[in-house]
Specification:
Layout: E1 3-9, H1 22-29, E2 33-39, E3 52-53, E4 63-64, H2 66-76, E5 85-94, H3 97-104, E6 108-112, E7 118-119, H4 121-126, E8 130-133, H5 142-154, E9 187-188, E10 191-192, H6 202-220
Parallel strand pairs: 1-2, 1-6, 4-7, 5-6, 5-8
Antiparallel strand pairs: 3-4, 9-10
């Protein structure tokens, strides 16, 4: 089953962007996953294909119209399509590795990339959009956030990464940040390799890596050791 990503955006030319390179790009070219970008403006109103309007009640910025976005979603997502419909949003649930694995276990995702001040709340409700955030900061639009989510998913698709084990020993996979990595040369600017890594004792190496991961997590992300009931690692992006 090919993982399919459908993107709804005002800038379809931005895709696949960086996803068309390296291992993700090779997987796209060989059919391990599929990507299609749909132009929201094709469903705009009037001769100028307007997609936004002033916010009800006044205020700054413009709001993406519910009727325009709903028409774009209906045209891009056929009836019976069970893929999750995601809206990249700063108020969404923080993207986590657990969420990514759940997405990859399915048939793919539909990603709505908003612009302007926001999206009319009625289309979020009417089309069952789940808001997802990639960090506690604001972006110009949802495209970059959507690429982050897709990159996290695509690299876990079987066959995309060279060694499957490298996807299970990384930060967040076991509730800890990743241990430090080293390679040649054995000495560099007076800094040597940790003795444990030179021992040839696999049990000792595994124990050292676990201890390092726990120490780094305690120092940098203690919240991972005592997660909130809502769970998740991450935070937002401007719609």
């Amino acid at each position: 089953m090919t993982f399919r990503a459908s993107i709804l955006t005002l800038y379809p030319e931005m895709f696949p962007g960086p996803l068309g390179h390296s291992l993700a790009g090779e997987g796209l070219r060989t059919g391990l996953w599929a990507l299609e970008a749909h132009q929201i403006r094709d469903h705009g109103i009037g001769r100028h294909r307007n997609v936004d309007d002033n916010p009800a009640g006044g205020g700054a910025g413009m709001v993406l119209r519910c009727d325009v976005l709903a028409a774009a979603i209906d045209a891009a997502v056929p009836a019976g399509d069970t893929r999750p419909r995601l809206l990249m949003s700063p108020r969404g649930r923080p993207l986590s590795q657990r969420m990514v694995r759940d997405f990859v276990a399915g048939e793919g995702v539909v990603i709505v990339c908003g612009r302007f001040e926001g999206v009319d709340e009625r289309v979020i409700e009417g089309r069952g959009l789940t808001e997802v955030s990639v960090g506690d900061y604001i972006l110009s639009g949802g495209e970059m956030a959507g690429m982050v989510l897709l990159d996290a998913c695509v690299r876990l698709i079987p066959g995309v990464m060279g060694k499957q084990a490298s996807g299970t020993e990384e930060s967040f996979e076991n509730g800890l940040l990743e241990y430090p990595h080293y390679t040649r040369p054995r000495e560099w600017e007076g800094r040597g390799l940790p003795e444990a890594l030179l021992s040839g004792d696999h049990a000792r190496i595994a124990r050292w890596r676990r201890e390092q991961a726990e120490m780094i997590t305690r120092e940098r992300r203690p919240d991972l050791l005592n997660p909130s009931p809502l769970g998740g690692e991450g935070g937002s992006a401007k719609r």
